[in-house]
Amino acid sequence: MDHYRVTYARREDLRRDLETQIERGGLYVLAPPPDELAYGARCSLEVVAPDGRAVSLEGEVLAVTPGHGLALAMDARTIGELRALVSSLGSDAPGAGAPLHERVDGGRTGERAPASAVDVLQSWESLSTVEKMRLAQHGGRDERAAALRDRNRSLHPHVLKNPRMTVEEVVALARNPQAAPEMLKLIAERSEWMGRAGVAEAIARNPKTPNDVGVRALANCSAEAVRQMAKGVGAPPHIAQAARKRVLG
Question: Are strands 26-29 and 2-7 parallel, antiparallel or unpaired?
Fold first, then answer.
């Protein structure tokens, strides 16, 4: 099955395509299809909104224009989801670009970024905010690292939504003394991460972690880590005090 993605930088473009194409039963994807793609073939499509939210579906090929694009049918369920998504979007960002149409090679839609997008990471600053957001949420380790290095801090939380984010990356981020308090709070809200002693310890020790979040993290730290923090080893004063209370019972 072939996989395609259309990423919208502007709400108005998505609304227009919804009203003029999708609600009439299909969407024309401006990405060159493979030569062997035939009428009636099943394909998957991911429609990505300006805020990074996406609707995924499978459709049937209605028409193919070799070297140019293809028309895909859409079912009523997907149309309803897209209507709700469009109605919930805010105003467009100034200077937002045109929609990006892509064929996603190898793997399910959203599993990895297309090769063309990965190549352009060498000039990350040339990407639009929407493209960076999508790569943060769906790309590999290099894309996630690039997003976290970006000066636009609004991109950083999107990395935490990436299903391929590893525990090792989370620990490294939680240890980073330059991490924003809000990022550390978002990590602490994920039980699958905070259930890991290494993540909890990094959150507790980081001086940027909000005080109440750091104290709660002690409950998931190893006994040895709590004892070390109780001695004040690599722990902020309020964490050392809380750790001593836990040790003394």
Answer: unpaired
